[in-house]
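Sample pair:
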Amino acid sequence: MTTSGTIRCGIGGWTFEPWEGTFYPDDLPKKRQLEYASSKLKTIEVNGTYYSTFTPATYAKWAAETPDGFVFSLKAIRFTTNRRVLGEAGESVAKFLQSGPSELGKKLGPIVWQFAPTKKFDPADFEAFLKLLPEKQDGVPLRHALEVRHPSFVVPEFAALARKYRAAVCYAHHFDYPEFADVTADFVYARLQRGQDDIPTAYKPAELDGWAKRAKVWAAGGMPDDLPLADDKAKVEKKPRDVFVYFIHEGKVRAPHAAMALQQRVDG
């Protein structure tokens, strides 16, 4: 019987010039960067899908260039979430999900729905949006993560709504955005965004030790006791959960090394 979910540590995207010579070998052709990155990491969050629509052929190509067990998380295109009335996003949601993500098959990880820092929590409208998110696309199961950035979301009502629709609340370790780590789905999604380029692993070794401990708690079905919650009264079923941890934003130059260092800790 499984007692722990799978912990995958990764980065945002795979094309970043400062990684050439620091993460990628100097002589590695750009067209082989995804192949190389996916051989060193277990997951990548794709940011490009937030800005542009990709084709089924592109998703199929990504799947072919990466090893078994590798997983892509995709940011949903911004037209789905950058709107005054979220409940009117049905056409945009369908268009994005029908554009080819299912070509990834088992390599399709969570879909991340990112909301602007100015977007406030409107319970009725947000529930209308959550009702638009399907459980499957072309027979491929979908997992949804909600990345909210306005402090009005840090309330028990939002956590309860996310839990009702089995969507994960994205935990953000960020300097500006609200930080809360309520577990609301059968997986956990965390974005660690306080890294530093002058630290070889973006976060100090002792800090990585702490994140490894938290990731293991999440994977075993628990909740770390040192992270803030929107609802500290909710009862959460204790069951194994897959965990996705990304090093993004600050400390980006060292993000691949951070992800590898954390993966080594949780796998050890």
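The radius of gyration is 18 Å.
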